[in-house]
Design a protein that fits this description.
The complex is a heterodimer of chains A (614) and B (141).
Chain A: H1 4-7, H2 10-20, E1 28-32, H3 50-55, H4 59-79, E2 83-86, E3 92-100, E4 103-115, H5 118-134, H6 141-148, E5 151-152, H7 154-206, H8 211-229, E6 233-240, E7 248-253, H9 270-277, E8 282-285, H10 294-301, E9 310-317, E10 322-330, H11 336-404, H12 410-438, E11 447-450, H13 452-462, H14 464-470, E12 473-476, H15 478-482, E13 487-490, H16 491-508, E14 514-521, E15 525-533, H17 553-558, H18 566-576, E16 580-583, E17 587-589, E18 594-604, H19 609-613
Parallel strand pairs in A: 4-5, 12-14
Antiparallel strand pairs in A: 1-4, 2-3, 3-4, 6-7, 6-10, 8-9, 9-10, 11-13, 14-15, 15-18, 16-18, 17-18
Chain B: E1 5-9, H1 13-26, E2 29-33, H2 36-44, E3 51-54, H3 73-84, E4 91-95, H4 100-112, E5 119-121, H5 126-137
Parallel strand pairs in B: 1-2, 1-3, 3-4, 4-5
Helix pairs in contact in B: 1-5, 2-3, 3-4
Classes of the chains: A alpha+beta (614), B alpha/beta (141).
Chain lengths: 614, 141
């Protein structure tokens, strides 16, 4: 309840009333709605008439006066205007209500004069005599004092009423302004607090940096948004446009029960429909009547009380492939401020949605970046493994040769020296492969006419070391390769490509099988095929097998991670020669009881493009 | 007394050659496994093995799963030997992996079994390996 002193300074009021009441011989008094028993304002009784001073001299009588004042104040408040009448002790009294927005704040009372009206004067005398008797004054004592009190004329009374009414109206206006200002201030600070909370929520969304964090943080964010706007709970539905499965609830906030998470809902669900439409943000009726809908499930999860009756909905694109919607479930409130909030919730959701989408996308980028970095680390580890393993072997072989050559027979020494040569070439080829993939530009080909059969046999020798450990025979088909013409190729590069192919074939071949190199001649092109029997290539792997680092599922289990660049480099080299390197799904060979995989190099009969066209 | 037998686990026997030769010359008997699953099968077959030289980056085979596509197979095998098979057979990790996290993981596995982790990071001189083996299981006979 607003108090008078909140609206106007009381000393100012007293001075104001003093001025307005000049010439009125009698006291005035401003009384709040519930005055304490000894209430008196203004404090001084200076302006009191002798009659009133006498009447109010005892505590008992003071209470009676106050009671009479209160009764008149109530009546004036009910009428909503100034009234005048004869008080309990027999004098005129004016009551002027100060009302602010329908609420009585205080009453200005003024009087202590006899009435010009004979009937009122008669009534006054009668009441004074009764009071004199009741309070045990000497007979005639009060009546005598009353007689000394001045009579007010009708005109005087009207002037005072009007003046006081103007004062009351002024205070009412002040009060109204003050109350409205206060309310505005409250509303503003409420909005400010709310907006600070929302800003904080948005900031925390911006700080999410990992996709794993995203779902838990978005849960937390929605919970806090629920608390901020007074929603009972919220759901976040996500739909993957690629998969044909219905949208899934990824987060439920505000409810302790989590059974809705990961649940999917049919395309008929009104909330799902909104998600798919990606329509304008809207407020819809909470309808728990249909079994199997989100509203129904939310309804069941509420324990009887505070069941929501409306849903604030917004749908948005979470990423390039994902649509999402957030639904806030709210109970309509009777409070004006709260019912205003429903519109505000749409506003909040409209602001939160893009933030959530940005956070989601940032997370995906960050996670992708982390994955790439991890991949890079593993790649470097693979590379060092690939290089250190043969170097380690080279070192061990050399050390052993150095320590033992004086007592080893020459054959053993020769074989170890050959081993060292093989391994060095092997390691050098690996190093060249790495150099190939990290180089910025394509190398210039240094072409020369090459005898292909000799080149292929040399390549086969290069992989002999590895092949021998698996009992794999690398055989260059004599007849078909003898028919190959000389080709214009970069010798070193072509050897690298072929050895890469042979290395790959040996690596994925079953133990004790054969890797065969055959050739065939076309009118303008020649083909060289490398076939092995071992881990097959499936149809789905055929194109991807040339991608850097790609390995088939079976290869992952059976062969340690290599550098994954051998085939990539081989294809690059062959293409630089205007040729092609291809493969096809492995074919089961009944006679061998194994899958045969073939990689085929096709090269122009002349390595020179212009010659070839002519 | 029988010859002491070493299970040498490496997917590239070509590169393992000189190390194996050195062990054999020192008098140890060496048998091979080329992936994680083969290693377990040999150990479970009841064949008496005195020590394992274990590579880390190698294929898993069917029974071992390694989310890193075989890059940590050896650690998974070591963990299986200690935790599932409850075996305290000495293991010498012989690897190019120098990642501290992997080493700590191995140390943790060995510590839980009350053992000290032995990790040799390649390149390693053949003699170093033999010395380490001798220290762990003594002379070949």
């Amino acid at each position: 309840m607003t108090r008078l002193e909140e609206l106007i300074n009381l000393e100012t009021l007293e001075a104001l009333l003093d001025g307005f009441l000049k010439g009125w011989d009698g006291a005035f008094n401003v009384m709040p709605v519930d005055p304490p028993p000894d209430y008196l304002f203004p404090q001084s009784r200076e302006r009191f008439t002798q009659f009133c001073k006498k009447v109010r001299s005892t505590e008992e009588e003071y209470k009676l006066c106050l009671e009479s004042n209160r009764k008149h104040a109530e009546e004036a408040a009910q009428k909503g205007q100034p009234i005048s009448h004869i008080c309990h002790a027999g004098l005129l009294e004016i009551a002027v209500p100060i009302i602010v927005r329908g609420e009585l704040i205080a009453t200005i009372l003024c009087g202590q004069r006899r009435s010009w009206n004979e009937a009122e004067e008669g009534e006054g005398r009668k009441r004074a005599a009764e009071t004199e008797r009741e309070l045990g004054f000497q007979p005639g004592e009060l009546l005598g004092l009353r007689k000394q009190t001045l009579k007010a004329t009708e005109e005087q009374l009207d002037v005072v009423k009007n003046r006081l009414w103007r004062v009351a109206a002024h205070i009412s206006t002040l009060g109204l302004e003050k109350i409205e200002l206060g309310e505005k201030r409250d509303e503003l600070s409420y909005r400010l607090r709310e907006s600070e909370k929302i800003q904080e929520i948005m900031r925390s969304l911006a700080e999410i940096v990992q996709l794993e964090e995203f779902w838990s943080k978005v849960d937390d964010t929605l919970s806090r948004l629920c608390r901020t706007i007074g929603a009972s709970c919220a759901t976040l539905l996500v739909h993957d446009r690629q998969s044909k499965t219905p949208p899934i609830v990824k987060s439920v906030s505000g409810l302790e029960k989590e059974e809705l998470v990961k649940k999917s809902y049919s395309y008929d669900d009104p909330i799902v429909m909104h998600l798919l439409r990606r329509g304008e943000p809207e407020i819809i009726k909470f309808d728990p009547s249909i079994e199997g809908t989100i509203c129904r499930d939310i309804y069941k999860l509420h324990d009887g009380r505070n069941k929501p009756d409306q849903v604030v909905l917004i749908s948005f694109a979470l990423s390039g492939e994902h649509d999402a919607n957030i639904a806030f479930f709210l109970e309509r409130e009777t409070d004006t401020r709260a019912s205003l909030a429903v519109e505000k919730e749409l506003d909040i959701l409209t602001r939160a949605a893009p933030q959530i989408a940005i956070a989601f996308q940032n997370c995906r980028l960050f996670t992708e970046q982390k994955r790439l970095l991890r991949e890079r680390d593993f790649y470097l580890e693979d590379v060092s493994h690939q290089l250190i393993a043969p170097l380690h072997s080279l070192q061990a072989t050399s050390v052993r040769l150095f320590e033992h050559y004086h007592h080893w027979d020459s054959e053993l020494v020769d074989s170890r020296l050959q081993e060292i040569i093989n391994m060095s070439r092997w390691t050098a080829r690996l190093a060249r492969n790495f150099a190939w993939v990290v180089r910025a530009s394509k190398p210039i080909l240094r072409k020369e006419q090459m005898d292909m059969k000799g080149l292929l046999i040399g390549c086969a020798r290069d992989v002999q070391g590895l092949a021998a450990t698996k009992g794999v025979q690398v055989r260059v088909d004599w007849r078909s390769t003898s028919a190959l013409p000389k080709l214009d190729v970069d010798r070193d590069l072509l050897i690298q490509a072929v050895v890469n192919l042979l290395d790959n074939a040996v690596k994925y071949a079953d133990n004790d099988t054969e890797v065969v190199v055959t050739a065939s001649l076309g009118t303008s092109r020649v083909s060289i095929a490398v076939a092995d029997y071992g881990i097959p290539i499936e149809k789905k792997d055929v194109e991807r097998i040339f991608e850097r680092g790609y390995r088939t599922d079976e290869a992952k289990k059976r062969v340690a991670a290599g550098t994954g660049i051998g085939l990539t480099v081989a294809r690059d080299i062959i293409r630089l020669h205007d040729g092609e390197l291809s493969t096809s799904p492995s074919v089961y060979d009944k006679t061998k009881g194994a899958y045969r995989t073939t990689f085929t190099i096709t090269l122009p009969r002349s390595g020179n493009r212009r010659d070839h066209r002519r | 007394m029988r010859e002491k037998k070493i299970l040498f686990v490496d997917d590239e026997p070509w590169f393992a050659g000189p190390m194996v030769e050195e062990l054999e010359e020192a008098g140890y008997q060496v048998i091979f496994a080329q992936n994680g699953t083969e290693t377990l099968e040999i150990l479970e077959s009841g064949e008496s093995i005195d020590l394992i030289v274990l590579d880390i980056m190698m294929p898993t085979g069917e029974r071992i799963t390694d989310p890193l596509e075989g890059r940590r197979t050896g650690v998974k095998v070591g963990e299986f030997i200690r935790k599932e098979m409850k075996s305290r057979i000495p293991i010498v990790y012989l690897t190019v992996v120098s990642d501290q996290a992997v080493h700590s993981h191995i140390e943790q596995i060995e510590k839980e079994a009350g053992l000290e982790a032995i990790i040799l990071v390649k390149p390693v001189f053949p003699r170093e390996l033999v010395d380490k083996v001798k220290k762990l299981i003594g002379k070949p006979r």
